[in-house]
Write a structure and sequence with these properties.
The protein is α/β, with parallel strands linked by helices and 393 residues long. It has 2 domains: 328 residues, Rossmann fold (3-Layer(aba) Sandwich), CATH 3.40.50.300; 54 residues, no CATH class. A 6-stranded mixed beta sheet has the order 6-10-11-3-12-13, sandwiched between helices. The protein has a 4-stranded antiparallel beta sheet with strand order 2-1-4-5, with helices on one face. A 3-stranded antiparallel beta sheet has the order 7-8-9. The N and C termini lie far apart (75 Å).
């Protein structure tokens, strides 16, 4: 299943949005805070979720609305999901923070979608008894997002079973892929062993440690990779992980990742799961810097009326762009400089216009102390100051 198009009207903070063409492998949604990136993921997940109908809300003061999704897994005559507001009367007055009616879900094929929300960290868990029961029906509430509560139990169970001759090949493949997750972004880290204390140990440059003691960045990657593998194994027990051709949603992919890893994570996931369609939100230019132009959905708009910005400026993608160029031309930042710098630049220019040598020299001294030693801006300020000093000799 691959999502081809999406239309949202009057859901959450979105008044109107139409996305006509999704990339079959990777889609990066970016835009300013509050524009509705997470709302888009929630809307998609809602159409493939058995429960959790109260998470999405109608847009304030709207009378109707819907979510239409077209995907390639359905015949042309019935290729659209239509989600409408329930006929329930308002249970709260207009002043309540819970005002609004829940949207009913008429889901189809919920097993084909996996959703990762922003909670992806975990703490140490002492395994006193192993939970070996993962029921499929408990994993189809996609709007709640993938749970990491039993991930450790899942790994231990599969590692123990992998040594049994009756274990299926696809389950053995799943646990081997899960072990690779430790070194996906840094090959110095590898799976060490599952020991008698039922702890999962990892080889690191500083020694062998329990996997819960890894950094937040490692935990984030493990949660995503293990989450995908685990969900596929539970939903499709007879299928190999790499044969899954569904959709994976990830909110704020860059959370807890160093910029270097932010630039690697998307390509790593696409390489590891080549048949999956990823739809991801981000605030990171490092994520966008590694992808093609048709894989970026840059949102703009006001009052909930959104549109996908045309990125004709980058027909060959962003791999040759600087972070600053992506921030300003793709992500919509008006200026990458601080307010302090802009104010000092304005004061300096005013001093030049007034031939105020003393003030210009004092401002330059401040700029020299705080700008990068090799800053091109600093070189320009110095050139302008030299000209002013020369005129006033």
């Amino acid at each position: 299943m691959k999502i081809e198009s999406l239309k949202i009207e009057n859901v959450g903070g979105i008044s109107n949005l139409t996305l006509d063409k999704f990339h079959p492998n990777l889609n990066i949604i970016c835009g300013e805070n509050g524009i509705g990136k997470t709302n888009i993921l929630d809307s998609i997940a809602h159409c493939f979720s058995m429960h959790s109908i109260s998470i999405l809300r109608e847009k304030a003061d709207s009378k109707n609305g819907f979510i239409d999704i077209k995907n390639d897994d359905m015949p042309e005559s019935s290729c659209r999901f239509r989600i409408q507001y329930s006929e329930l009367k308002d249970r709260f007055d207009n002043n309540s923070p819970f005002f609004g009616r829940p949207i009913n879900s008429y889901c189809r094929n919920p097993e084909n979608l996996i959703y990762f929300k922003t909670e992806r960290l975990f703490s140490h868990k002492l395994v006193e008894q192993l939970n070996i029961h993962d029921l499929k029906r408990d994993h189809l509430c996609n709007l709640d997002g993938v749970s990491i509560d039993l991930a450790k139990d899942w790994f231990i169970k599969n590692e123990l079973l992998s040594f049994q001759k009756y274990t299926k090949d696809n389950d053995k493949n799943s646990i081997e892929l899960a072990k690779r997750a430790f070194g996906l972004l840094n090959q110095s880290y590898t799976f060490s062993a599952l020991r008698q204390d039922m702890e999962i140990y990892v080889n690191t440059p500083t020694g062998v440690i329990p996997y819960e003691y890894l950094s937040s960045g490692f935990k984030t990657c493990i949660s995503i990779v293990w989450g995908i593998i685990r969900e596929i194994q539970i939903r499709f027990p007879d299928r190999d992980v790499k044969d899954f051709k569904g959709v994976v949603l990830i909110d704020e992919i860059e959370l807890h990742l160093h910029p270097e890893w932010q630039g690697k994570i998307c390509n790593t996931l696409v390489t590891l799961f080549p048949e999956i369609q990823f739809i991801i939100t981000t605030h990171s230019p490092h994520v966008i810097q590694t992808v093609e132009a048709d894989q970026v959905i840059a949102l703009s708009g006001q009052d909930g009326y959104l549109e996908k910005r045309t990125l004709d400026i980058a027909p060959n993608g962003f791999k040759g762009w600087t972070i600053e160029e992506i921030l300003m031309n793709v992500m919509g930042m008006k200026d990458t400089r601080t307010e302090w710098f802009r104010n000092k630049q304005k004061e300096f220019n005013e001093a030049l216009d007034l031939d105020n040598v003393l003030k210009a020299n004092n401002i330059f001294k401040e700029l020299k102390e705080k700008l990068h030693p090799n800053s091109t801006d600093l070189a320009l300020f110095r050139f302008q100051l030299d000209m002013l000093n020369g005129r006033n000799k």
